[in-house]
Amino acid sequence: MYRALPLALLAATLAGCASDAPQLQTERSYRVEWIGERPLIDRSHLTVTFAADGRAHGHAGCNHWFAGYRLKGDAVGFEAPGSTRKMCAPALMEQEQRFLAALSEVKRWDFNDIGQLQLWPASGKPIRLWAE
Prior knowledge:
By secondary structure, this protein is α+β, with helices and mostly antiparallel strands. It has one domain: Lipocalin, CATH 2.40.128. 23% of the residues lie in helices and 37% in strands. The chain has helices spanning 4-18, 90-105; strands spanning 29-35, 38-39, 47-50, 55-59, 64-72, 75-78, 82-83, 106-111, 117-121, 127-131. Strands 1, 2, 3, 4, 5, 6, 7, 8, 9 and 10 form a ten-stranded antiparallel beta sheet that branches. Strand 5 (64-72) and strand 6 (75-78) form a beta hairpin. The radius of gyration is 18 Å and the shape is globular. The termini are far apart. InterPro entries: DUF306_Meta_HslJ, HslJ-like_sf, Hsp_HslJ-like. Residues 1-20 form the signal peptide. Keywords: Signal. This is DUF306 domain-containing protein.
């Protein structure tokens, strides 16, 4: 009986540590820093907000975007995103299209060693974001 007590304490301690892991938060905006292997164009502003109702939205650099999302554990997926239709400089429009296409490929999320949220596709590099 006394041998089981240290194991029970160790298990409780480890369970407590697991809850200290960063969590993807709803109703919080994240600022995009990288899309795959490329950083954003200087002074462009892309954001992702996960609403509690299963909808995500934000700014895609030129237009506002929106999509449904599913979150279960470390799995996350987005429905095909829609957006407003404003025209901007060609480089911003290309970046926006890369971002919206990358969102459609996202399969899971995690946080890296420096606290960035990473949205991972099935293969390739993630979208990297900072909490605002």
